[in-house]
Amino acid sequence: MNPQFLEKILPKKELKEVKHEIEYYGAAKVLSEYVGWSWSPEKSKIKYWLHGWMYKNQKHVRQIKFWGEKNEPYFCHTKAQERFLKNQSHNLTKAIGAPFVYVPAQNIEKIQGSILLMPPHCTKNSPQKYNENAFLHSILPLLSDFKYIFACVTPDDAEQGNWIHELKKRKINILEGATLYDQNALYRMRMIFEMFDVILAPNLGSHFPYAGLCGCRLSWFGDYEYPKKADFKDDPFYQRYPEILKYEIEENLSGYLERTYSKLRLSPGEARSHRVWSEEQLGINYKQKPEKIIKLLEKGIKPSFFSAFMD
Predict the structure, then answer these.
(1) Tens of pLDDT, residues 279-299
(2) pLDDT tier at 123 (50, 70, 90 boundaries)?
(3) The dihedral of CA 239, 159, 103, 211: what is its sign?
(4) Are the C-beta atoms of residues 111 and 1 closer than 8 Å to each other?
(5) How is domain 111-275 classified at the architecture level of CATH?
(6) What mean pLDDT is reported for the chain?
(7) Contacts 24+ apart (CB under 8 A), 270-273
(8) 238-276 per-position pLDDT tens digit
(9) Dist CA 13 CA 203 (whole Å)
(10) Angle of helix 290-299 relative to helix 27-35, nearest 10 degrees?
């Protein structure tokens, strides 16, 4: 099995300029296909849907609702997030689950003896560098039991030359990861995670509940150094909200994440499936039926939106 073969069966990239959070990774497309209605946020007041997994302790509104004012609607994942935002007077908030729970199962048989490495990734605004050699050196002795070893590298990382050299030097196969501009990114992620038996990452991120929902065994393992304040000096979000960066760095150092997600702290050989936990993290119990989503989207294009959305 080689990466060229896998790339052939994965959805082709469909790159598009995105203006609103609800378009990130193709979430609006997923929602449109879920309800069978070609919907666009351009003519709607609904422009924001929480992307990713919120695994940090909630203290600031902008840890959940990155954009949008109090009088602008917001789709979040769970009732706990909805209550938190409403308690801060962001009353037009609805818990509908994460975009990933609306991606239909692809019913792909898992490749037995396979593992997918998820190295830490950077963004163009936060191009922090990781000790690639230290991470790979810390996990390689544990990979001998796996027949198929792949690593997922984002386009931003590949463009900046991150990970590619060190992975190729160790003859580890590389798959291209997601970009928020790809309208098929969520479908691509779903297929990739359905294929692999185990995923391993040294840092927390959306890959854990996404993969867990797809039946992967999860391993939070490997040498990793948390980013520092200097790594985000050019990040517009943290420039605007320095108090959030300060809080999150302090939280990283406090041991909160290790205490909260200790059950993921397993070597790849010990990794376990956490499907129920993943469903809870992504708010699958708040996933709406198509007819309910249609009603919400219809309200978004009505002049009487603000009163209708609260019904």
Answers:
(1) 999 999 999 999 999 989 887
(2) confident
(3) negative
(4) yes
(5) 3-Layer(aba) Sandwich (3.40)
(6) 91
(7) 270/219, 271/198, 271/200, 271/217, 271/218, 271/219, 272/217, 272/218, 273/212, 273/215, 273/216, 273/217, 273/218
(8) 999 999 999 999 998 899 999 999 999 999 999 999 999
(9) 26
(10) 120
Give the C-alpha separation, 63 to 59, whole Å.
7
Beta bridge partners of 116: 150, 199
**Overall pTM surpassing 0.90 (yes/no):** yes
CA distance linking residue 98 with residue 106, whole number of Å = 18
Can you read off the two tokens belonging to residue 155?
């386009």
Q: List strand residue ranges (DSSP E) for 194-306, in order.
A: 196-201, 217-220, 272-273
Beta-carbon-side half-sphere exposure of residue 74 (alpha carbons within 13 Å): 28
What are the extents of the domains in the chain?
Answer: 14-102+282-309, 111-275
Tokens encoding 74: 């917001």
Q: Provide the residue type at 299 as one letter.
A: K
Phi, psi (rounded to 5 degrees) for 114: -110, 150
Gap between the Cα atoms of 277 and 254, Å rounded? 23
Q: Which residue has the tokens 């027949």?
A: 147
For the segment 182-225, what is each residue's pLDDT rounded down to a tens digit?
Answer: 999 999 999 999 999 999 999 999 999 999 999 999 999 998 88
